[in-house]
Known about the structure:
seven-stranded mixed beta sheet; three-stranded parallel beta sheet; alpha/beta
Amino acid sequence: MAKLISDEKAAELKAFVANKHPGAICVANYKGGVGKTTLVCLLGYYLTEITRKKVLLFDIDPQCSLSLSVGFDPDEVSRTELTIYNLVKPTKWTKLKKTNLDSYVFSVPDTLSPKDLYIVRGSFDIDILDMEIAKSLVVDEKRRQNELFLYCKQLLNGFDAFDYILVDCPPNKMFLTQAMLRACSFYLPVTIPDAISVYGMPRLLRWVKQIPSGDRPRLLGYVLNAINRTGGLLGGKTYSQQSAEARLKRSIFSDLEPIEKKVLGDDPLVGVIPRLDAIARFLSEKTKFSRYEFSRKTSGQPTIKECLVQITNETLRRMESYNAKA
């Protein structure tokens, strides 16, 4: 008896209808060095503290910056097989039910981190993984690609003991980046408001628009990182930063979906992260000593803590708003 649909179409349909983790957020941008790891790390801390729920960080960047930022030693990351590389390599795609996902979850070693903050550690071999995935697609490319998309959805959904998952992506269009973006319910771009960095955001938004609408993650807005705060009439940003942000807003508003317009309203900005040494020092410390400086007032501007609480609360509000309109 002839098949009603091809194996390729069956794999595509299965990937399309698979459930997503309702609290999964992909932090992405097509450009590097704009603060993706900074946002994931700090949002992870404050999301855990504010909600008092379990949060899981996913490090899929081959630089492993997120894993290092929360206190892991580079040699320690390199030695273990319990990393994102071994969790998503092609030989795993048909073995999810046999995989002990808990063994890949580690407590954040930083002694100042909330007790319910965890991480799936990165791997320096992730760039090799993309070549392995490409090789697996040589035969029956479309079907295998949909198997990857399905696997990543089911993978994130398998971590259902966690209320929120934050995925730190590299600045590229790797197969794994594409798959994780499709696997997440939401995405949150971050950028530095300068003439060069903001160009990565429209490219990311166009890329997301290529995902079928029923499988597309919802835009939570955007976060501005490394704000050079001036105070006064410029609202805490330099003139060049305000100019770059204005161009960014125009490009975003030009192509929002109706539901995104309802949720984001007149301003897609989620919040800002100031350019302050206290943040850089905190991220670079293997063992964190204090977040006291996060609460220090400088030049009449909001404190670092106030900025991060704002980002966290607005992210939660927009997620709830999307869910209410679904």
